TrEMBL record:
Pfam families per record: Tn7_TnsA-like_N
Cited InterPro entries: TnsA-like, TnsA_N
Species per Swiss-Prot/TrEMBL record: Nonomuraea spiralis
Domain (TnsA endonuclease N-terminal): residue spans on this chain: 87-161
Lineage summary: Bacteria, Bacillati, Actinomycetota, Actinomycetes, Streptosporangiales
Descriptive protein name: TnsA-like heteromeric transposase endonuclease subunit
Length: 247
């Protein structure tokens, strides 16, 4: 980028405005004014419409880490919402958290990122979900300006695409057991943790604890919570090695 181009973009960043929903009303602020806003707790700035003939697949994902639903506009976004829900370094997240509006070369633009995630260390990530083959010139410009706005605020920015098939398949399976009800039998959970103190095959070791129909949901719940661990890069099977986290 030329020096003039950089000056123009810096000026655009200085004048850029964020808009978000707080207590049911829209609030606006310059980039310099929004650094302390808890965007992980805001409502979406736009709706998630569903109607006959719609080409994408919107919906609501139940985030166990939030005990709340988070909206998504595509299955790709749903998978990344699931990944945020699974990530122990993420304490809270929201979807469609704000509008970012700016002007460059007389053209007015605005963009609403897909997710805002607050990290355990207090930092933040802004996330857009788009397969690489679907990133055209216009969207690439919006993503790059969003990245620079995040950089100005001290936030991280990620443009993410498809998740590895084996990993996302495993996460979808574990997500079926993410609700806390699967871990409420504490004596059984304790027995499972004791059984997997050392690495052992999933089904065989679960059967040693008790009826697999009762034990396996607890194992999957503890895997989701990160108290047990397994190699998520390979599809789960009865022979998958499971152990206590950190072993």
């Amino acid at each position: 980028m030329s020096e003039i181009g950089e000056l123009l973009e810096d000026a655009a960043l200085d004048a850029a405005v964020m808009a978000w929903v707080q207590d049911g009303a829209e609030v606006r602020g310059l980039l310099s004014e929004v650094g302390n806003v808890a965007f992980e707790a805001v409502r979406p700035v736009r709706q998630f419409p569903a109607y006959r003939g719609l080409r994408n697949f919107p919906g609501l994902y139940y985030a166990a880490s939030l005990d709340a639903h988070v909206g998504f506009e595509s299955w790709l976004e749903r998978d990344h919402a699931m990944l945020l829900d699974f990530d122990p370094a993420v304490t809270a997240f929201s979807s469609q958290p704000f509008w970012l509006a700016w002007e460059v070369g007389g053209r007015r633009r605005q963009h609403a990122p897909d997710f805002f995630a607050r990290r355990m260390d207090g930092g933040a990530w802004v996330i857009d979900c788009r397969p690489e083959k679907r990133v055209d010139e216009r969207s690439a410009e919006a993503f790059e300006f969003t990245r620079r706005a995040c950089q100005r605020l001290g936030w991280g920015y990620r443009l993410v695409g498809e998740i590895d098939a084996a990993r996302v398949g495993n996460l979808r399976w574990l997500a079926g057991y993410r609700h806390k009800r699967h871990g409420q039998a504490r004596s059984l959970a304790a027995a499972v943790m004791a059984a997997f103190t050392l690495p052992a095959p999933l089904t065989r070791q679960a059967a040693e604890v008790g009826d697999p129909l009762e034990v396996l949901p607890v194992v999957f719940h503890l895997l989701w919570r990160g108290e047990l661990s397994a190699d998520l890069s390979r599809p789960f099977s009865e022979h998958t090695i499971v152990c206590r986290a950190g072993r």
